[in-house]
């Protein structure tokens, strides 16, 4: 956390007089909000007024965006009697009353550009040296604002390394910085399975806290092969549900059997299916669901692969022969070996090379 905090603080550079917009970007559960809170606490004394508004995505649903604006105006102006009649009225108040103040504003979990348009659309709304920080899963949200601020920056939050991940997991599972020797191997296996995702380690660690029976730990690991913990899945599902149907199909294909493959190969399949692969992959990358690694390879975080497979498994758990997708594991090979296919018209089977797949 210290290293990430220092990197974000350097990007914000509070001594500079320009007005900056910074996006803390990454997949769900990666620790964006935690990082933002630490940075906010470290820098708040450098500004005239400050505001940290959590859960913008949820708070803005329905007619809630006006209430978010009211919260921001109250934090910066401090006038509880100030009446805001509409979103446009609130925008005028923000740009007319904030423009003389050096403000620090953190907007957590922004998922649509209209939220920024209502809260921080332009550098002219804020006084010299102001900083606007946004946490988001969708990198594309800031594209519209690149010309509206003197500096528009992006900080990508990365997965934890093995040592830091072990410390985080241990704090939740054992209330210490390291696990006892008798649980070290099991802890390391769980960490490898979570892929360095802080949310997953916190949830699984808290679940296992106080459980001394190794059989319970081993069953938890086995269960992780087929399904995610509900709290982890719910958090990641927000990103999946924000995709349209075609993007969801591309996501599920990659999660089930295309991660690690050259992205050029499945484009022909997706194009024939009418999934618009160029646009779809671009959206998945911008929303931190997929990365394009060296040599043009598709890469997906283990927890996101688990999410995709869990979605497919839940849809077809009663009879896997009716599924649209199947990958080789302990439950699937017999169907492939018998070359029966599935009962559904569209059948995918992922194996080591896409050229060996059956359709």
Number of helices: 16
Shape: globular
Beta strands, count: 9
CATH superfamily of the largest domain: P-loop containing nucleotide triphosphate hydrolases
Percentage beta strand: 5-15%
Mean pLDDT: 85
Count of discrete structural domains: 3
Going by CATH, the architecture of the largest domain would be 3-Layer(aba) Sandwich
Radius of gyration over C-alpha positions, nearest whole angstrom: 23 Å
List low-pLDDT spans: 330-359
Classify the secondary structure makeup into a structural class.
alpha/beta
As a percent range, the share of helical residues equals 40-55%
Q: Strand order across the biggest sheet?
A: 2-3-4-1-5
* Gap between N and C termini: 46 Å
Describe the model:
The protein is α/β, with parallel strands linked by helices. It folds into 3 domains: 2-156, Rossmann fold; 162-225; 243-356, Arc Repressor Mutant, subunit A (Orthogonal Bundle). The chain has 16 helices and 9 strands. The strands form 3 sheets. A 5-stranded parallel beta sheet has the order 2-3-4-1-5, with helices on both faces. The longest helix has 15 residues, at 302-316. 36% of the residues are buried.
């Amino acid at each position: 956390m210290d290293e990430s905090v220092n990197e974000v603080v350097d990007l914000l550079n509070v001594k500079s007089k320009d007005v900056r917009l910074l996006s803390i970007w990454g997949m769900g559960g990666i620790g964006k909000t935690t990082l933002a809170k630490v940075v906010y606490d470290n820098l708040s004394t450098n500004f005239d007024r400050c505001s940290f508004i959590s859960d913008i995505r949820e708070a803005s649903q329905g007619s809630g965006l006006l209430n978010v604006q009211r919260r921001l105006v109250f934090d910066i102006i401090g006038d509880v009697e100030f009446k805001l009649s509409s979103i446009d009225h609130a925008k005028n108040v923000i740009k007319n009353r904030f423009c003389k103040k050096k403000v620090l504003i953190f907007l957590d979990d922004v998922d649509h550009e209209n939220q920024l348009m209502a809260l921080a659309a332009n550098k002219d709304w804020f006084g010299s040296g102001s900083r606007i920080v946004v946490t988001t899963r969708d990198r594309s949200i800031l594209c519209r604002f690149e010309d509206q601020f003197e500096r528009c920056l992006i900080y990508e939050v990365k997965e934890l390394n093995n040592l830091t991940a072990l410390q985080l997991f241990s704090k939740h599972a054992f209330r210490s910085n390291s696990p006892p020797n008798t649980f070290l191997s099991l802890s390391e296996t769980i960490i490898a399975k979570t892929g360095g995702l802080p949310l997953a380690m916190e949830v699984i660690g808290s679940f296992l806290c106080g459980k001394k029976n190794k059989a319970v730990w081993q069953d938890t690991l086995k269960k992780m092969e087929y399904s995610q913990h509900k709290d982890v899945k719910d958090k990641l599902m927000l990103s999946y549900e924000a995709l349209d149907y075609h993007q969801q199909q591309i996501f599920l294909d990659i999660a089930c059997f295309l991660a690690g493959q050259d992205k050029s190969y499945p484009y022909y399949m997706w194009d024939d299916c009418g999934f618009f692969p160029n646009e779809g992959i671009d959206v998945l990358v911008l929303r931190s669901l997929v990365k394009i690694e060296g040599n043009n390879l598709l890469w997906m975080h283990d927890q996101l692969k688990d999410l995709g497979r869990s979605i497919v498994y839940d849809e077809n758990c009663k009879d896997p022969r009716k599924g649209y997708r199947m990958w080789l594991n302990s439950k699937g090979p017999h169907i492939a070996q018998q070359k029966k296919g599935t009962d559904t018209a569209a059948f995918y089977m992922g194996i080591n090379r896409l050229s060996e797949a059956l359709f």
